[in-house]
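Hi, here's the filled form for the chain we discussed.

Project: internal
Contact: R.S.
Residues: 544
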Amino acid sequence: MANSRDFTGKNRKFTGTKGIVTPKGTTGQRVGEEPGELRFNTTTELMEYYDGTSWKPIDSNPTVSVVSPLEVDSSAGGNITFTITGTNFKSGAVTKFVGSDATEITASTTTVTNSTSISAVIARSSFDNAKEPYDVKIINVSGLSGILDNQINVDTAPTWTTAAGNIANIDEESSGTHATVSATDAEGDTISYSETGGTVLTDASLTLNSSTGAISGNPVNVGSTTTYSFTLRATANAKTADRNFNIVVAPAPTGGTIATYSYGGISYRTHKFTSNGDFVLYGTKTVDYLIIGGGGGGGHHSGAGGGAGGLVWRTGQTLAAGTYAAVIGNGGSTNFNSNGNDGQNSTFNSNTALGGGGGGAGGPGIQGRSGGSGGGGGRGQNAGTSTQFSTYGYGTGNVGAANGANNTGPNHAGYAGGGAGGAANIRIGGIGNSTFVGDAASTTAFLLGTVAGTDSSNNATTGSSAGTLYIAGGGGGSDQDNVTDSDLAGGLGGGGAGSDSAGYDGTTARANTGSGAGGQGWDGGTVSNPNPGATGIVIVRYTT
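And the returned structure, exactly as it came back:
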């Protein structure tokens, strides 16, 4: 009997319009004997043929035409679902995403909705920005695949670098830039800033720079400390990140005589204390301040001039909200037939400006007293020295005079007191300080703006004063003989001129300059000009 499978030399011809029936069965029922055998696989629902080694499915490749979405925020966490549209999708298909370096990541689930639609789920963190753009690849169970190139980009939301919460403590007088917020973007996209969910900054008269994140402006006046809370949004290539911030606006500081002035393009507000008072802050502020101790009193009987109070200038001092006492030192008294008393200390924010040293008496031959600046020595005695810096490590003062010309003998003259800007010279008081802010121009602007100190003629500063201004001059010395008044001059900055014994009674130290009193000559035993050294002063300034 002939082999029923022996078709040698035969070509079978199928005719008609109906299909032919081939063998069929599951994958597990395959039996491959000869290359070219055909069967229908009921497991894969595909025709397959045997190549002599294994069974090969007969199928067409799937195609991928549309993918959505096209962007992944890899830092957002969780999963992302992609909808993939195409053709010839088969049950059991797998979705892969192929990076620019050819590495593949596989969707955790691929659901074939129908032959033209797939839903694929994968963790956002699986995508790497360095490997964008990603291709989308669908692999059917047949092993045939379709791919759509360069579809998915990785774009993370910007990340805030400015911590949430309070970013500035200002007062209602503040202007300029108060704070700058910032965020970064992993892709280097340009970031813009905006307020979202309200108009708090606008309502507070503050402006947010959308490009730089700077918050500036002069805030609205408040009756009490007010917290403005707002939400800012950082946007980069349509990706956003929100963060909550607040700014505290306090009432303007109070205390003393308040004034404003400008120098070098900077506006300042000042508080001048000529008597004891409180500087009250409602919010943190960086300030500069001047403290000058009371001037020393003059000596009697060919007495010496008193020294100026020590001068303290502190800059960039950060003060928290609170009350800060300004204590103003009185000038030292001028006494009969004795040395002058020391001036009293002035204090502010735990800093002390020493009172000036009293001038020595001439009759008993008393040396000058030490202090903020030293008093002059009486009748050739030693002068007092400045102990301001050696005591506290800050501030300035100078020595009084202990020598110089006399008219007819060493018992006829008392010497001058030191100033805050220079040492005394014979009977002329030491010059006051004209450069403590930085140089003569900036110091003059400060003294003119606060109406403090004197001009170069030792006249008290007014709003129309011209030229270089000074403060804290030493008192002039005395002489028992009739001398030229200018020989007994007080130091520029307010120092009192000394007296002689022939009718010249000298001048009074300028109030609130911390200047020393002039020395007193012998005029029948009376003190011709018993006025004390000048009271001290405290001035606080800050930018607006």
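Let me know if anything looks off before we file it.
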